[in-house]
Automatic annotation (TrEMBL):
Pfam families xrefs: PEP-utilizers
Limits of the PEP-utilising enzyme mobile domain: 504-574
Signal peptide: none
InterPro entries, A to Z: PEP-util_enz_mobile_dom, PEP_Utilizing_Enz, Phosphohistidine_dom_sf
Name recorded for this polypeptide: PEP-utilising enzyme mobile domain-containing protein
Amino acid sequence: MVDIAPPWVVDSPLSTRFPVYTRANAGEVTPSVATPLFWSQIGGPPAEQVWKRVLADFGAFDLDEFRDDAIDIQGMLHGYVYLNLSNLRVFGARMPGASPELMDRTYLGERSDVPPYEPHPDDAKPEYTERILATVNRVFATEHRGDLVELAAETERSRAARPDYTTLSDADLVALQRERMQQYKPFLYAHLMLVYEGSLVTGLLETTLAPLGDPTLVARVLTGLGNIASAAPSAALWRLSRLVTGSPALTAAFDAGLDGVLDRIAALDEPAAAEFRAGWDQFLHDFGSRSAMEWEAMPQTWETHPQIPLGLLERMRLQPDDRDPEAQSRRLAAEREALTADLRAQLADQPEAVGSLDLALRLSGVFMPARELSKSNLIRVLHEARLPMRALAQRYVAADLLQRPEDITMLREDELDAFVADPASTVPTIRERWEWHAALSEREPPYIVMAGEVPPVTSWPLRSEPNVAPARSGDALTGLPACPGVATGRARIISDPADARDLEPGEILVAPMTDPGWTPLFTSAEAVVVDIGSTMSHAAIVSRELGIPCVLGVQHASVRIPNGALLTVDGTAGIVTVH
């Protein structure tokens, strides 16, 4: 029986200057126990260095406010990643027009278990406000983000330069991984900076529309923006699905089951099959880096585990033609244009408000697509950095030293050299850490923790015994409205996009979390309900692009809602009604 009481292999002491931490947002990105390789190679200290520099360059902090060799913006507690809420509150205190309470609502929604903000003498100082205003002026003057297009071209060059891993030694693979992780840092910087810059744009939009008294307006004017990188895989898969539905031979190949479907299609001698094969190869080239849990050290990407996108395609081919995501996006764009014309009419006697609205809408068209492109660029470069580790691990699986490639993720980055020198000696350590990892995974981490007041991990509730009441007929579960619209259908609880084949046409996807690796499944769902997430999460942005009613931040939805229950999802009001 493993003892889970000690700190996990890569745990770090919590900050006393910024003492409040939350699983909000962090739980969406890293829902399970973090592996040592992820935290030491991708998250943790490597990301912290970049993140601190972003906050300083944005103007919200000085670098000397953070501990030099410690984690302050993030948190790692018994393997679970946390986001520092105190840090966000200080950001809100220093941001003109914002507040700590606004940051709470943005990231947490309305919750009763959040400790009140306690001001620190250094929180609000005029010099930070002046620096942030300089950033605001820079952002509001932005016309385009061509720099991200160039970064996208760099990811393509990196993909094209992928070597033949079989020709590299074990030490060469480790060195290549480290080299590519250095190349990854500018992409991380660009993405993190865009997260903060994008918050300025949405803040302007919310401030401009608030006097109209309709809380649904922000989500509605952000629908159908077009050119959303994280929605592109859905459109590409849809085109492939229409090839299948338009070809009896391709349909028969899929009807025979997903196992061996690509081999059956390869054996077909007809134009539709050749077009499908070319389209599938291009899909994996363009989007093979995507996956669920995209930040982990060795996720099941679409390139390494193609059965996952094949399962998404299998669900998509059953949808009628009117679910075409590109057609939906055009419809939503037309609705958005009509709505914005109406808003301008309502504000016609307020020229300043009309000017603010036009500025916010223009900037939304720049920064929302830019934010998603920055994430796609980041993940594509990260994918190229992780593949050498998978190649290395597969060698040791073939040599019967490791049971599966993922075993290597139980090592820290600084343990890789010793592993290559003497892999057999690390096998017991890997086995012990997997047992520890499994035991921690059985626990539900607290949503909010404070430095010095963390409950013992042995007291954390077991996931198998959730302390929540099942939803009953008539219950109305509230969350954050992410995409407007109303839909009714049966609930389908899915915890992993690999289980896509369980989702039937007309059903409502209910999930504990989603990230871009899930989003092609949205096209096959009548609506989407997620336990966690914010109105600016990737799930929200993609659902608005696809026109799928979506409610995020519905606490314990995937546990409380029975599989098969009849639901009505109101993505405009943020309410899920159980019938």
